[in-house]
Q: What sequence folds into this?
């Protein structure tokens, strides 16, 4: 055959024959392999071992748990990753995940299904339905989160005896806060319970998740982006959907402080039928000195005015932030609200695009309005909690209003933009200056933020004869949205509607004159 016409298969076989002749005989290869396996000096280094372990863990996460053995292996892996100790009971249907301070007992059916999960700190194990449900759903990431939370309780620079006392202190604090929450149950309006009650909406500690206090909810928190509808503000919705801003009640390592070891609250019944709580001061009988403090932890740091930081320090006697690293409060809020996309220290306007208007906001704050990022507030007594929440609510209300002007995706539209100057001298007052829509003079809207649930708007104009809209109308819009752009849009639309009515009245007047004819 001609070489050009040889089949591809024959070419491939020829290449394989040529390649095979280069290899050693099978016997020699087997001998070389045995010698390599017998060499003791060939060991896997720690880096390779860690990479291999990560690969094995990743593979195991992808394997569905369908038997008792696979459940035990998965729990063993999670335990090792958390630096805890894993053991099994005599019959193999009990698993124990433990540290020197606590243990979690998992009871399994022969099929591998979880029967019960118990947690023991310093006494008999107590069933935890939340952890049982987590494992029944196969949510091992959530189970890991619970283990991390349990371990975090004891992350103190202390011995085992002091760590035990720290847990008892946290338990006593939670008891007092729960009792306060029960006393405020007479508040039927959910908004008042969130924003005006001493501890907000309380969610008890469950498994490894700490006690949570929900203390502020903005209207934007109630928007369901998927269904494009509003979520009703109810206690059940707050707890189920984790709405709003909350703090976690924890204990953390610090310098030495006196912390309670028993409940400090006592309730007095008045002749009017009211229950009035009172708290005992810390003493040698009801407290102990520990290298720790209680802390209200925020999910993420919030910009806070130095004035409020100092007020909190006056209550707790503990610094909650490094006040030597302060900067402009407005700059901090803009940077955080834009997720770093906008430079808060820039003099450029903030553009906001609305359905039928375009706004540009220039923010200016007093040089004295400095702030810092606060990630948590340490305290030592249960009476500190309601006072701290008052200041946190004030700050979040101010932050929400300033952040409402921050829309990184909005683009500049110089031709049709309404210009606004937003001035702040304190976190309780915001002033918005703009051009009067009817007579091209200066108008101002002053916001009073002293009342969390009832922000007040006052509108000032140079010409008192030409009003824009009523203060009550502007206040009502602001209270419903807590948004400067949305409120200013409503104010401008109200003025434009007023101009249209005035124009129609004028046209009607002249039409009437023309139809009646001149009178002499």
A:
């Amino acid at each position: 055959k001609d070489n050009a016409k040889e089949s591809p298969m024959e070419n491939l076989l020829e290449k394989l024959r040529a390649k095979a002749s280069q290899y050693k005989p099978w016997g020699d290869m087997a001998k070389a392999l045995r010698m390599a396996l017998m060499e003791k000096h060939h060991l896997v280094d720690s880096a390779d071992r860690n990479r291999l372990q990560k690969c094995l863990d990743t593979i195991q996460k992808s394997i569905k748990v369908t038997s008792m053995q696979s459940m035990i292996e998965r729990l063993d892996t999670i335990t090792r990753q958390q630096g805890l100790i894993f053991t099994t009971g005599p019959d193999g249907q009990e698993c124990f995940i433990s540290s020197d301070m606590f243990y979690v007992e998992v009871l399994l059916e022969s099929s591998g299904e979880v029967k019960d999960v118990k947690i023991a700190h310093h006494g008999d194990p107590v069933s935890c339905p939340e952890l049982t449900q987590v494992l029944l759903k196969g949510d091992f990431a959530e189970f890991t989160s619970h283990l991390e939370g349990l371990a975090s309780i004891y992350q103190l620079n202390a011995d085992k005896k002091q760590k035990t006392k720290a847990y008892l202190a946290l338990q006593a604090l939670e008891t007092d806060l729960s009792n306060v929450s029960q006393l405020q149950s007479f508040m039927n309006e959910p908004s008042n319970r969130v924003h005006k009650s001493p501890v907000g909406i309380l969610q008890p500690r469950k498994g490894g998740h700490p006690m949570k206090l929900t203390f502020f909810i903005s209207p934007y928190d109630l928007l369901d982006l998927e269904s494009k509808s509003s979520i009703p503000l109810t206690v059940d919705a707050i707890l189920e959907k984790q709405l709003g801003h909350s703090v976690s009640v924890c204990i953390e390592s610090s310098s030495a402080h006196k912390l309670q070891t028993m409940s400090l609250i006592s309730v007095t019944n008045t002749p009017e039928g009211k229950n009035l709580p009172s708290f005992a001061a810390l003493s040698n009988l009801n407290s102990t000195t520990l290298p720790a403090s209680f802390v209200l932890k925020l999910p993420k740091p919030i910009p806070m005015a130095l004035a409020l930081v100092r007020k909190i320090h006056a209550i707790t006697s503990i610094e909650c932030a490094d006040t030597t690293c302060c900067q402009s409060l407005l700059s901090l809020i803009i940077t955080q609200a834009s997720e770093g996309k906008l430079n808060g220290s820039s003099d450029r306007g903030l553009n906001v695009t609305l359905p039928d208007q375009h706004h540009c906001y220039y923010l200016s704050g007093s040089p004295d309005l400095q702030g810092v990022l606060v990630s948590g507030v340490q305290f030592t007594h249960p009476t500190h909690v309601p006072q701290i929440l008052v200041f946190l609510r004030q700050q979040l209300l101010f932050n929400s209003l300033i952040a409402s002007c921050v829309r990184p995706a909005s683009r500049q539209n110089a031709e049709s933009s309404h210009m606004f100057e937003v001035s702040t001298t304190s976190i309780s007052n915001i002033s918005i200056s703009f051009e009067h829509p009817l007579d091209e003079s200066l108008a101002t809207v002053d916001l009073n933020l002293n009342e969390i649930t009832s922000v007040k708007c006052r509108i000032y104009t140079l010409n008192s004869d030409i009003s824009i809209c009523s203060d009550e109308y502007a206040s009502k819009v602001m209270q419903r949205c807590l948004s400067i752009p949305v409120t200013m849009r409503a104010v401008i639309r109200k003025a434009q509607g007023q101009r249209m009515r005035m124009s129609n009245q004028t046209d009607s007047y002249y039409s009437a004159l023309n139809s009646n004819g001149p009178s002499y």
In short: The chain has three domains: 56-152, 160-268+275-403, 428-507. The CA atoms of residues 400 and 482 lie 7 Å apart.
